[in-house]
Specification:
Blueprint (H helix, E strand, L loop, with lengths): L5 E5 L3 E5 L4 E6 L4 E2 L2 E2 L7 H16 L7 E4 L5 E5 L2 E2 L2 E8 L2 H10 L1 E2 L2 E2 L9 E7 L2 E2 L11 H8 L1 H24 L2 E12 L5 E4 L8 E5 L15 H9 L13 H19 L3 H6 L7
Antiparallel strand pairs: 1-2, 2-3, 3-7, 4-5, 6-7, 8-14, 9-12, 9-13, 9-14, 10-11, 14-15, 14-16
């Protein structure tokens, strides 16, 4: 008999089920969101890529910080996880000046309270990685915030702990990716607290949904590098003049196939595992 599970919530990508008082089941769908809007078109195998890459990264960063993963299921898109009390901030680390960070820098010379040197260009590597938290918006868009605003949400001691752990995780993952020909420009992490109040990495880790990946051999400062993430979809949506409010636009077949190819390439290049092998046996990413 399959284990009973009670549906308790839906995210932009994941469905959340309660297994018991201590465990949750996260099921990654093939939905894709951009500018915080879920689009009506799915990307085949996207959920498996997110789940497999997260499992791979959880297995290799557990000495830096505990994580919520208990097991991967045979479908390659479902993970059994520990229940956590999630912190109310998105934990973003930026090593390069891109996305909303680039826009904030152009407007003010700062990103989330970090004053940056004058004269930086788009996509330029920062003098050192910076921790740039954001709100978790129930509706609408997440908003970048500075240290003071984040401390109001989580407290100073917890903020300092989260910042140090997030920077350590980024440093590890950035070095790992660079050895495999990929630049990790920035990434979003989420943390929660276990029953003892200890910090635990949750949600997903270093996936194309939560990170900006660039091929190192095509990186040129002052430009927008091609990417292995959903920037391909963002660029298409922006080309439409869409107002970035629901409902989102349908994606044409070439954008769907191109996005799937980028996600799968990111998986294979970062893990060194053939995606078909993962589909056949998801546990391969944990070895």
């Amino acid at each position: 008999m399959p284990e009973a599970a009670t549906h308790v919530g839906s995210g932009k990508v994941r469905e959340l089920y309660a297994l018991d008082d201590e465990r949750l089941l996260l099921v990654a769908s093939d939905r894709i969101s951009t500018f915080d809007v879920i689009l009506p078109t799915e990307i085949p195998d996207k959920g498996r890529v997110l789940t497999g890459l997260s499992g791979f990264c959880f297995a290799r960063t557990r000495e830096l910080v505990p994580n919520h993963l208990l097991s991967l299921r045979e479908d390659g898109r479902s993970t059994e996880c520990r229940r956590l009390e999630m912190l109310p901030i998105e934990c973003v680390v930026r090593g390069y000046l891109a996305g909303s960070g680039w826009k904030d820098y152009c407007a003010s010379g700062e990103v989330c309270g970090h004053r940056l040197p004058d004269g930086l260009v788009e996509s330029q590597q920062l003098p050192r990685p910076i921790f740039t938290p954001a709100t978790k918006a129930e509706t609408g868009h997440d908003e970048n915030i500075d240290r003071a605003a984040a401390i109001e949400l989580v407290g100073e001691e917890r903020f300092d702990e989260v910042e140090a752990v997030a920077l350590a995780l980024y440093s590890f993952a950035s070095d790992y990716a660079r050895e495999r020909g990929i630049i990790l420009a920035d990434t979003k992490l989420e943390f929660g607290l276990d029953e003892r109040g200890e910090l635990v990495l949750g949600d997903e880790a270093f996936t194309p949904d939560s990170s900006r990946f660039w091929p190192a051999n095509e990186y040129v400062p002052g430009s927008t590098p091609p990417s292995f993430d959903k920037q391909f979809v963002r660029d298409y949506c922006e080309s439409l003049g869409w107002a970035k409010t629901s409902p989102g636009p349908e994606l044409p077949d070439d954008v769907v196939s191109g996005t799937r190819a980028r996600y799968v390439e990111a998986f294979e290049q970062l893990t060194g595992i053939d995606f078909g092998d993962y589909v056949a046996d998801p546990s391969v990413v944990l070895r």
